[in-house]
Amino acid sequence: MVEKENNTSKQKRKNVNMLKMEANKEILNLKPITAEMNILSRSDGSVIITQGDSSCIVNVNGPTEVVSMANMDMNKAYMEVSYRPRCGIPGVNERYKEKIIKNICETVILTALYPKSQINIQIQEMDDGSGIFACVINACNVALLNSGIEMRSTMAAVHCVLNDKDDLIVDPIDYSEDTPTFSRIQKAVRNSKYKADFTFVFESIKESVISVNTNGTFTIHQYNNAQKLCKEASKKIFEFYCDLARKYANII
User: Fold this and answer.
1) Distance CA 172, CA 27 (A)
2) Which of 28, 48, 54, 72 is deepest in the core (most CB within 10 A)?
3) Which pLDDT score is estimated for 250?
4) Which of 33, 35, 40 lies closest to 248, judged by CA?
5) What is the mean pLDDT of residues 35-41?
6) Is the dihedral of CA 47, 43, 124, 162 positive or negative?
7) Per-residue DSSP letters for 66-111?
8) What are phi and psi of 249, to 5 degrees?
9) Residue 13 is inside which H or E element, if any?
10) CA distances (Å), 32 to each of 47, 52, 74, 175, 228, in order?
11) What is the pLDDT of residue 162?
12) What is the pTM (predicted TM-score) of this model?
């Protein structure tokens, strides 16, 4: 009788573990990602990426001569990032994104190899859906790879939200019922559905976090769980980079 009870308990544990694995697979499902490189003729590296309901174009030029002598650095390259929204002129939010993207790119690029030079990154939003910031960072990574600039590692950004039921959702899809694009008011209404949102950026060598962008209220436990989920999801993005390299590279 004891052996039968042990066997039944083991089977129950296995079933629970299988259910957890299936649930994790459903949670970690990312939006479909498509990318096309070399879309701009006069560019060292360019890409258009569509990630679910978000898409953007990134153009990379450099290393080039420094435009302003005040920005020249004798020890490393100077980074210039330009972020333009889908419509309208850039505002405070775009300047904030430019600063974050510049810091992230300076972390992964070997700027010390290009002293007294300048690297320009131009970003144009196409469809501003949920997780647009993560989509932009992933596009910057592909554009840098396409340009041939030396990097310490690749990077992958994953978006995650915390809903009203305290459930974490990785890379959610939010479509507007009225129009396929989002105005600033519609974005505010969309973001009000969630208690918090996270955007984690991981590097490929040690899979460590190099940048985090958070908004809303959350606990430390919820933050740690979101980081674990996004770390597992980032592996799929790194696999996407490998598949993209096999598609465009002549020799691997």
Assistant:
1) 10
2) 54
3) 63
4) 35
5) 93
6) positive
7) -SSGGG--SSSPEEEEEEE-SSS---HHHHHHHHHHHHHHHHHB-G
8) -80, 145
9) helix 2-27
10) 16, 6, 42, 15, 21
11) 93
12) 0.84
